[in-house]
Amino acid sequence: MRPTVDEYRHKGLRRKLVDVISAKGITDEQVLSVIGNVPRHFFLDSAFDDVAYEDRAFPIGEGQTISQPFTVAYQTQLLQLQPNMKVLEIGTGSAYQAVVLAEMGVKVFTIERQKKLFESNKVFAFLKKYINIKFFYGDGFLGLPTYGPFDRVIITAAAPIVPPKLIEQLKHGGMMVIPLGVGDVQQMRRITKNADGSLSEERFSDFSFVPMLEGKRQ
Ligand code: SAH
User: Which UniProt keywords apply (predicted)?
Assistant: First the structure.
């Protein structure tokens, strides 16, 4: 069962979480404020109620995880979002990152390859108010050609390569934030598609994500 009540206690725990991730290097005030407002315990089973605001990843079923809040904040900060941008997210998972993006004021298009996770988000009542999030069941390597091009692409699973179709669906001037690498550790990269269509790449810290896999799963 999912918790549905946001108690005063949870708000206090969120304030502490904001202190923790800001001490780890998150400086974007809007990102910190959003992490301080989104009820992360709603995205987890009530068994995790006491630990939902620890800066850790947790299991969400199907062998997948809700990302660590620091990681969510880090990727969101790297995206340098502006209001109303179109953002493509690969790996909906718990939908926590999608809600954080929506709270940043952008239009979110999010894809999940695991049918069960996609279906469980369809009946997750809290998400109903987020009319600026569109949920898709599909293979993120293919993106959403009919909904693009996008201002930003965020990949929330360990990508073995930079998916070429996602680069195609990026606007000129757009950016992709991607944890790149096979194995236990991936390096966060930010790829910018310049005005002339050429690509530039910046390298950031190491993270550990579940793998980005090809094809859909029933
Ligand atoms: N953004 C999520 C993180 C979930 S973990 C959150 O905030 O909770 C990564 C997710 O990516 C998993 O749910 C996994 O099933 C999904 N995934 C992996 N490969 C994918 C692909 N090719 N297309 C879409 N989703 C994918």
Answer: Cytoplasm, Methyltransferase, S-adenosyl-L-methionine, Transferase
Q: Is 188 helix (H, G, I), strand (E, B) or coil?
A: strand
49-53 long-range contacts (CB < 8 A, ≥24 apart) are 49/3, 52/10, 52/13, 53/10, 53/13, 53/14, 53/16, 53/17
What architecture does CATH give domain 8-207?
3-Layer(aba) Sandwich (3.40)
Helix 29-37, helix 69-79: angle, nearest 10: 140
pLDDT in tens, the chain (218 residues): 899 999 999 999 999 999 999 999 999 999 999 999 999 999 999 999 989 999 999 998 888 999 999 999 999 999 999 999 999 999 999 999 999 999 999 999 999 999 999 999 999 999 999 999 999 999 999 999 999 999 999 999 999 999 999 999 999 999 999 999 998 999 999 999 999 999 999 999 999 999 999 998 98
Residues 22, 33, 46, 67: which is the catalytic one? 67
What is the Å distance from ligand 1's center to 12 Cα? 29
pTM: 0.98
Pairing of strands 86-90, 150-155: parallel
Residue 23 sits at the vertex; the CA angle it makes with 179 and 19, to the nearest 5 degrees, is 110
Q: Is 205 a catalytic site residue? A: no
What's the CA-to-centroid distance between 211 and ligand 1, angstroms? 8
Tell me the two tokens of residue 147.
């909904």
